[in-house]
Write a structure and sequence with these properties.
Layout lengths: L3 E5 L2 E2 L6 H19 L4 E8 L3 H10 L3 H18 L6 E4 L3 H16 L3 E11 L4 E3 L17 E11 L5 H10 L4 E2 L2 H10 L6 E2 L1 E3 L8 E2 L2 E6 L2 H4 L2 H4 L12 E5 L3 H15 L8 E4 L2 E3 L2 E2 L10 H8 L1 H11 L6 E3 L1 H31 L11 H22 L3 H22 L1 H4 L5 H23 L6 H10 L38
Parallel strand pairs: 1-3, 1-13, 2-3, 3-4, 8-14, 13-14, 15-17
Antiparallel strand pairs: 5-6, 5-7, 7-9, 10-12, 11-12, 15-16
The structure holds one RNA strand.
Length: 508
RNA sequence: GGGCCUUUAGCUCAAUGGUUAGAGCAGGGGACUCAUAAUCCCUUGGUUCCGGGUUCGAAUCCCGGAGGGCCUACCA
């Protein structure tokens, strides 16, 4: 079986992680965990992008070496993964030897094949910003904006990759493989980009301008410029792991789909004779309180602070529940509280607690065996079968928001079942028939809770483990038979109480 | 300028061209007490952005328009 290999974009370490970074990690993690539960062999990669001009500048501004600078920032991203309970198998940094070696190999190979050539490039250059300027950045009167300082027209030599010669191949591939770019409507955007002739891609910077990069193997006076450095991480991380490449999914933000991931990357690989990824999944962006996220205006969410305050699963749940994958979404504390209170705390959390309580009170803390089964049990089981059958395909299509809604409908049905059986009334009866139904109802609610929470495994893994734990249960590593209604809780002894999602006034 | 996406209840979202457009939350009413003042039941709420067209039948397909977002041009 082909390994299910999934990646996030690597984050540029010129600043601290924010909500967007956190979302992409969580989304990818949910997919990875879901595939593992489905029985796939999963390999999950994330990492950091650590070269380039901005980092060189930031390091210089602080008077430290670039390596020291990135060594200080990269751990923040690793720490974020830990705190978000991201189940990545590897974390690659583009400053690692294993990465640089592969980048050089690919570049040398393409150079030897004549796919990379040297050419002169003429353009307007801002010394202050240390960058070439685009014609469109110019003012109406032809002058350049103040921030660029002195702008001069210069000629510079650089290396170029023959992108254009693969244009038709890529167009054909995208048209023949509708799964290649997801959501599908994004493929139109890529094809539109490809409807104009591609320019060859400048892949180097002279060392006088940019030192902080990977030197070209065939010309030490130049370093690699972004594309071959950053994109190659997906490949370099697994080049020595047989059976992992090609990637099944690259999960990225919609902003870096066109052109890097959908155009440069497949062409780079194809030119090297390497298989290209199966699929690229482009997600949307978060706004905050209806406005664009921005550090300068203070309109941003610090993911780790949020986790400290509200808990990792509260954040994971909200991000996945609220966002329709591919679309943009808004993050507001009000909406967060709606999800937290009504879904996590009241519907699910309270179900856990009342189940424990009743099992303690009416069955000496041990999940009883199922007695006589009536219409109520049959009906609840039918809801389960329906939920189970609907949720898996929804998750497979990344419709997590809809899937979660269905799961919570089942949780509600379980709460309703409990009302219908009213074990607290049965507990007062000495009639053996009532006692038998009591046993059945306690066993049924526990089993429903085990199953319903199991479906939440990929999204809120820590919480699900706690729920299973207080039910005296240890879940299997896949859903193969985990999701089958049964009696595996019979005889398990349960905990006294468990508050999973405390209400705000009761939080410490 | 060209292109893409989007618009469904107060809010967040569903609905292979097919009964009377559905859920959750919020609002209103009731029930219950095992439970985190929770839970359960009932209920109010719609010109599916607007205007045409195709069709036996349109939220869905076509044309035109409006609002919002985005790509075309480095940044989750």
């Amino acid at each position: 079986m082909k390994t299910f290999y999934i990646t996030t974009a690597i984050d540029y370490v010129n600043g601290s992680p924010h909500l967007g970074h956190a979302y992409e990690k969580v989304l990818t993690d949910v997919i990875a965990r879901f595939r593992r539960m489905m029985g796939d062999e999963v390999y999950f990669l994330t990492g950091t992008d650590e070269h380039g001009q901005k980092i060189q500048q930031s390091a210089r501004a602080r008077g430290v070496a670039p390596q020291a600078f990135v060594d200080a920032i990269a751990p923040q991203f690793q720490e974020m993964c830990n705190r978000l309970e991201i189940s990545n198998d590897d974390f690659i940094r583009t400053t690692e030897e294993r990465h640089k070696r592969v980048v050089c190999e690919l570049l040398q190979q393409l150079f030897d094949k004549g796919e990379i050539y040297k050419a002169e490039y003429q353009g307007y250059y801002s010394t202050r910003q240390e960058q070439f300027l685009q014609g469109k950045g110019r003012n109406e009167d032809g002058s350049w904006p103040e921030i660029y300082g002195e702008v001069t027209e210069i000629t510079e030599s650089n290396y170029f990759f023959k992108l254009a010669s693969y244009q038709q191949w890529l167009i054909d591939h995208i048209k023949a493989n509708p799964e290649f770019i997801l959501p599908r409507y994004r493929a139109k955007q890529v094809l539109e980009f490809l409807s104009e002739p591609l320019n060859d891609l400048c892949i180097s910077r002279p060392k006088e301008r940019l030192e902080w990069g990977i030197p070209l193997p065939f010309d030490p006076d130049f370093v690699t410029y972004v594309w071959f450095d950053a994109l190659t991480n997906y490949y370099s991380a697994v080049v020595d792991k047989p059976g992992v490449w090609p990637a099944s999914f690259h999960v990225i933000g919609k902003d870096i789909l066109v052109p890097p991931h959908a155009v440069y990357w497949p062409i780079m690989l194809h030119a090297c004779g390497i298989a290209i990824p199966q699929s690229i999944l482009a997600h949307g962006w978060w706004s905050i309180n209806g406005a664009k996220m921005s550090k300068s205006t203070g309109n941003f969410v610090e993911p780790l602070e949020f986790v400290d305050t509200y808990g990792v699963d509260a954040l994971r749940y909200f991000l996945i529940r609220e966002m329709s994958v591919g679309q943009d979404s808004d993050f507001s504390l009000d909406q967060f509280w709606v999800r937290y209170n009504s879904e996590l705390a009241n519907n699910l959390g309270n179900l856990v607690n009342r189940t424990l309580n009743m099992t303690n009170r009416f069955a000496a803390s041990t999940v009883p065996g199922v007695g006589p089964v009536g219409d109520a049990e049959t009906a609840l089981k039918a809801v389960w079968e329906k939920t189970h059958a609907e949720v898996i395909p929804l998750f497979e299509e990344f419709q997590f928001n809809v899937g979660l809604e269905r799961i919570f409908a089942f949780i509600t049905a379980t709460n309703a079942y409990i009302e219908q059986r009213a074990p607290w009334k049965l507990g007062k009866s000495t009639d053996p028939a009532d006692q038998a139904i009591l046993q059945t109802s306690l066993a049924t609610m526990a089993e429903a809770l085990r199953l319903g929470s199991s479906l939440l495994q990929a999204v809120i893994p820590g919480t699900v483990q706690k729920i299973h734990g207080v039910l005296g249960y240890t879940a299997g590593s896949t859903w193969m038979d985990e999701l089958v209604w049964g009696d595996r809780l019979t005889g398990k002894s349960v905990e006294k109480t468990c508050i999973l999602f405390p209400r705000p006034d009761k939080k410490v």
